[in-house]
Design a protein that fits this description.
Elements: H1 4-17, E1 34-40, E2 50-52, E3 57-63, E4 72-78, H2 89-92, E5 93-95, E6 99-100, E7 103-106, E8 115-121, E9 126-129, E10 133-140, E11 146-155, E12 160-167, E13 177-185, H3 194-197, E14 198-204, E15 207-215, E16 219-221, E17 224-227, E18 234-236, E19 242-245, E20 256-261, E21 265-269, E22 290-292, H4 300-303, E23 306-313, E24 323-327, E25 342-344, E26 349-357, E27 359-368, E28 374-375, E29 389-396, E30 405-413
Parallel strand pairs: 2-11, 21-23
Antiparallel strand pairs: 1-3, 3-8, 4-6, 4-10, 5-9, 7-8, 10-11, 12-13, 13-17, 13-18, 14-15, 14-29, 16-17, 19-27, 20-21, 22-27, 23-26, 24-27, 25-26, 27-28, 29-30
């Protein structure tokens, strides 16, 4: 039975998508037969694409109906706050979108049949994206209904962004939070009235849903913009992600306790336990992202199997009005019915079984209440030592301009955290 929290979230998402033209636009979550959406720029991992102007972005996905449907795509440009920008399509796009995705193939020798689609931008139809800023790529069916959509960002590298990760200055949370401080250097352009024309966004581990937005510079020093926020730019440190590796379909890889066979291969992960009251232990991860690979496949995109992966969590606290879900970039950090951990009174565990294409995956357990609030670290805990990636985007709208550009991007990692 569809649980109440997921019902609330899905209904809320539909309302948000249906809002008027100038309201904030949210990503559309795909139906169940669309799986393994990989969206990336110049990385092997599937993660939030942040690309330089003139670079490529690649989207791929599987359709488990395996009937070679026709899918189309559309590209739209947005302001900093994800409201539609006030520019025409030919101002940001050289070429024509709403074209059919021509690169697709059916799976080969797999128990679960699927059609695999790949889209690369630029291509023969879309020659280039002309300007920087926020974009949404929409995938459409043959009736031009939106099947799903994904956000990405295009950057002009006109300013430098030096990022430093600090421990919180608030002693009550010094062991839990990580603060992001940064300096924007502008050697080549003169930024006028920066508190009105410049906005900054900080993203932790490719999860745009938890980004801190609209940070304004605290002060200027020559051509530099200084951001030394503590509380306003702080993130929970969290804990290292859990992981499993299913590249060998018949063997128990990392994180997998045993393998069984039914209509599909069944991988049973080791039972997980809460870590919030345990000492922090470093465990290398890929910060919530995933990678598709298979030992037996020459072409993993169409030869990899789909595996029914079983999760189990031992958790004895009273949830009250909350639910437990698995969480990660495997589905764009989305809570839905497929991520729900159901209580099994026979085993005394919270359990879930979900399809995953062969690969290496990061995941964590989160709680969500009836209002849709996600607590990412209620089960795994918060530790200042946790290794996290941070991305800082600098948006700029010069006085008189009609859209927000992204003029700089900076990267930081908490392995270099300082007091």
């Amino acid at each position: 039975m569809l649980n109440k929290v997921v019902n609330f979230l899905l209904y809320s998402s539909l309302l948000l998508v249906a809002c008027n033209l100038y309201s904030q636009v949210y990503e559309v979550h795909p139906p169940n037969h669309i799986q393994t959406i990989q969206f990336k720029g110049n990385t092997k991992l599937s993660q939030l694409p942040i690309i330089s102007l003139g670079s490529n972005v690649t989207l791929s996905f599987d359709d488990l109906h395996a009937d070679e449907k026709n899918y189309y795509y559309r590209i739209n440009h947005y302001n900093f706050d994800w409201t539609p920008s006030n520019i025409s399509k030919n101002e940001y796009l050289d070429g024509f979108d709403e074209s059919r995705i021509k690169n697709y193939a059916n799976s080969i020798n797999t128990l679960q049949s699927y059609s695999h689609y790949e889209l690369r931008i630029p291509n023969n139809d879309v020659k280039s994206l002309k300007i920087s800023g926020n974009y949404i790529l929409e995938i459409l069916d043959s009736d031009y209904n939106i099947i799903f959509s994904r956000k990405f960002m295009v950057v002009e590298r006109l300013v430098g962004v030096d990022v430093q990760i600090k421990r919180s200055r608030d002693l009550s949370v010094i062991d839990e939070l990580q603060s992001v401080q940064f300096t924007v250097t502008s050697p080549d352009i003169i930024i006028t009235n920066p508190r009105e024309t410049v906005k900054a966004s900080v993203i932790q581990n490719s999860n745009i849903h938890s980004a801190i937005n609209d940070l304004k510079p605290q002060h200027t020093l020559g051509n530099d913009l200084i951001y030394r926020y503590d509380k306003e730019a702080s993130f929970p440190g969290g804990n290292e992600y859990l992981y499993f590796d299913s590249k060998d379909i018949r063997a128990s890889g990392n994180g997998i306790q045993r393998v069984e066979m039914s209509d599909l291969y069944e991988h049973f992960l080791y039972v997980d336990r809460p870590r919030k009251n345990r000492p922090y232990r470093y465990n290398p991860d890929i910060n919530g992202n995933f990678l598709i690979h298979s030992l037996d496949a020459h072409r993993p995109s169409i030869e990899s199997e789909y595996v029914r992966t079983h999760f189990a969590l031992q958790f004895h606290e009273d949830l009250e009005d909350r639910e437990i879900h698995i969480y990660g970039n495997f589905n764009n950090f989305t809570i839905d019915d497929s991520t729900y951990m159901a209580w099994n009174p026979d085993s005394g565990l919270y359990e879930n079984a979900r399809l995953f294409k062969q690969g290496f995956y990061n995941y964590k357990y989160v709680t969500i209440d009836k209002y849709g609030y996600i607590d990412e670290n209620a089960i795994s805990g918060n530790f200042w030592q946790t290794e996290n990636d941070y991305t800082v985007l600098i948006y700029y709208r010069e006085i008189g301009e009609r859209y927000d550009r992204i003029i700089g991007v900076g990267q930081g990692n908490s392995t270099n955290i300082t007091n």
